[in-house]
Amino acid sequence: MRSNRIFALYTLASLAAWTVVAGSFATAQSSLPHASAEDRAEALAIFKQLIEINTTDTPQGNVTTATAAMQKRFLDAGFPAEDVLLLGPDPRKQNLVVRYRATGTPSEKPVLFLCHIDVVQALRSDWSTDPFQFIEKDGYYYGRGTQDMKESDAALVDTFLRLHREGYTPKRDLILALTADEEGGKFNGASWLVQNHRDLVDAAYVINPDSGGVELDHGRAAVAAVEATEKVYSDFQITATNRGGHSSLPRPDNAIYELTAALNKLATHIFPFELNEVTRTYFKNLAEHEKGETADDMKAILATPPDMDAAARLSQEPTFNANFRTTCVATRLNAGHANNALPQTAQAIVNCRIFPGHSPEEIRQQLIALFDDPNLSVKYVSDAGVVSDIAPERKPIAPPAPIAEVFEPLTRITDAIWPGTPVTPVMESGASDSIYFAQAGIPSYGYSAIALERDDVRAHGQDERLPVDSYWKSLDFFYAFTKALGGE
Q1: CA pair distance 285, 281, nearest whole angstrom
Q2: CATH domain 232-270+326-395 topology
Q3: For domain 31-211+432-486, which architecture applies?
Q4: Model pTM greater than 0.85?
Q5: Could you report the average pLDDT of every consecutive run of 10 residues in the chain (488 residues)?
């Protein structure tokens, strides 16, 4: 992939459709059915159960414990055993695929809800609470996975169970996949299912709640963002080597100094400002609902040429900055072999989220040029942890057309919960398993129905938490949305 070629992957029709998505589907505010006290109790019990099962890619974690627990809930509810399958290439990393069957022979292909169930490692010493204990405090639910993404896992498990209990019969099959190793590891469940059991997950399209959602600005719902494309995830291993020596004879060329000098360059480096059609549409739609200098700055960056002072001001908000450029940050460090010796090796992992249009190899070469140190090596690290001298060409997601059968109910239900909130495409600043389905030709739409303050995104971080109200609204959303997609 090269920067001038990637947009050849995007069809003009698709981009044109996304540019008007916010105004394409009329909304009429209506009331939604709310979960009963019994339904909420079940949904909360599922959420708690999932949070308290450690599903990290560590010796202490076990994805199968969680997927097997959810399998039991479906079997106990009366789902046929052949429609509730545990499968995967590793006993500790089993994926759960649940099929909610239509009556008779459906004329439409299924809808797939794709949810990873693994989480990022969390250390008790870093948190004010136990990360694997579900705690309600001060209007929030705390625990690893409350934002990414066991809240949606729980909401969709409960939705499937509730619909089944109510005797709902969809007009097409509905599939729920709870998968392993999205956050890292050798056994990515989404990729494995597409490659080895395409028949189980083949669908007309995918709904992936691992991206998108409602952005809050001091309690105000500013925008409901639906993932149209995403950045390319890449890890790089930066290694400094030196002959070392006795610590009583310090030298300025020791490995730690050389590595930290390179990382200090990276910390102050700003990758070039960029927009594509998705991010341009996002800021255009957002500017219509913002006020003051923020609105003016959003309009200014859309001008030709863009106003770089406005871009700099907006870049102070991390979520906006991530939409403007490639970002790279050091996430791990390791150095030295003894307390009384100069380090012979110092190593860091630099994680990059690459703006669509640039390849991992292109960014690797830019890092080499930035560091400008022959004693440093910059190597690519695959998702499975394999280190190589050359980074691959990895294609980003091409925006699928925003089809009416998805966006009409999505817009209508969002408006019922968060009135007047514009629905707009967004470029996911992280990465998700949507890429595997997009590469297989299955459109994927990322929307979580989770409302979070822009300055309180704690996924992968300390004291991850979710507003209590946000969970209940997402539960109402997915119940209504799933019924709408399945055919009411």
Answers
A1: 6
A2: Alpha-Beta Plaits (3.30.70)
A3: 3-Layer(aba) Sandwich (3.40)
A4: no
A5: 27 48 54 89 98 97 98 98 98 98 92 98 96 98 98 98 97 98 94 98 97 93 89 94 84 88 97 92 89 96 97 95 96 93 94 93 97 95 91 75 90 95 86 89 94 93 97 97 93
